Amino acid sequence: MLRALATALILLAAPARGCDTALLLAIDVSGSIDSAEYDLQVGGLAEALAEAPVRNALLTGQVALAVVQWSGLREQALVLPWRRMQTPEDIDAFAAATRGLQRAFGASDTAVGAALAFSAAQFAAVPDCRRRVIDISGDGPENAGFTVRRARTEAVAQGIEINAIAIEDFGASTAISAFYRDWVISRDGFVMTARGLRDYPRAIRAKLLRELETPVG
Question: Would the pTM of this model clear 0.90, i.e. be above it?
C-alpha cells in the first residue's frame, strides 16, 4: 500500500511532457494530381520522417502530427488524426501509416480556402500545443470557392502559422509559388518550391526541418 502510494506521488510530481508544435500536413489530391504523383507525395513524406535530422527535430521539439487530404469545396478529410511524436516507434508508426494512405478524393477542383479552413479547425483537438502550423502543398491556384484570403485571415487570427510547398511544373514560371506566397502563407510563413512532383521528397524534408527548427520565441 505504502509503496503504491509513493509511486503515485512520484508520478504526480513528475512534470508532464508538453507539446511544442502541432504540425498539420495538408496534401493536395485535386484533379491535377495523378496516381503516380499522389504516391510521390505520401512516399516523400514517409521518407522524410525516416531521415535522422527530421526524427531528431520531431522528438526534441515535442511535436504532434496530423495529415489532411483536400481537393474541392466539400472534399477535405482528416486521414491521419493527431499523434504525438514521443518515441522513435511513434515516428515509425506514423511514417508507415502515411505510406499506406489511400487517396481520399478523385479528380476534382482546387479549393485552397476550404482546405485552410478545414485544417485550422483541427487544432481544437490539440489545445495544449504552444505553436500551431499548417503545412499545405499544392500544384495549382484556387479555382473553386475563392475563399483563400478570408480563410488565411481567420487562421492567423487564431495564432496559426501557414507555410506551403508550391509544386511547379519543371521548367515553368513560378506562378504557383507566387500564388502561395501572396495569398496563402501567413505573414511570417514561407514557401518552398518543388520543381515538379519528383522534387517533392527533397522539398518536404527541407520544409519540415525549417519548420521544426524554428527557435522558440
Answer: no
